[in-house]
Amino acid sequence: MSQAVFTHDTELSLRAAAALVNTPAPETLDAVIAFFESWGWTGPRPENAAVVPVVGRVRQRIAGLWGAPMEVAVDITNGLLRDAHACPQLVNHEPVGWHVHAAPPESDFPTRLAVDTAMAFADAIRTGAYSRLRRCAAADCDDAFVDLSKNRSRKFCDGTCGTKAAAAAYRARARESVSQD
User: Fold this and answer.
1) Residue in 91, 100, 109 with CA at minimum distance from that of residue 55
2) Does residue 149 surpass a pLDDT of 50?
3) Phi, psi angles (nearest 5°) of residue 68
4) CA spacing 20 to 30 A to 39: which of 52, 86, 144, 146?
5) What is the structure's pLDDT at 173?
6) How far apart are CA 3 and CA 13, in angstroms?
7) Helix, strand, or coil here: 101?
8) Tell me: the pLDDT tens digits for 154-165?
9) Collapsing DSSP states into helix, strand and coil, what is residue 93?
10) What's the rounded Cα separation, in Å, for the pair 2 and 46?
């Protein structure tokens, strides 16, 4: 049986962070709520439009983590935790089971987003898996993604970039083969 790269909650937080970074900053409360609900966030649901620009600022800070040199990622991670006055505690609830919450249960969504993402990046950094948090290698794409492959070989985001690159490489090999004949 293969071992998971990250714990369930860390992987979920990293994937949610990548999804947030890969989309435009939310411009409405409905967009924030849609993100909140689509990723199964727990705790108080965002309830007023004042949260929108705050999520946008958190998104911008999180975007700086992807592809940054490790020292920069450490500084951003520590800043997110420090600014939120993170206080890690073990909690047990479904569907995750035992895991760590570092923001108090009554914290607003932007705080939980910042802290959960920072805790996930801290996990990736301390376990030597920071290199799995990448930007797409396609020339026309800069999307963030989490490389969960066994051999750390993934180069492209979840979009069509890998398929396009494979097709372009195939066409180049075919042209080369024809020119050699």
Assistant:
1) 109
2) yes
3) -75, 150
4) 86
5) 75
6) 18
7) strand
8) 899 877 887 776
9) strand
10) 38
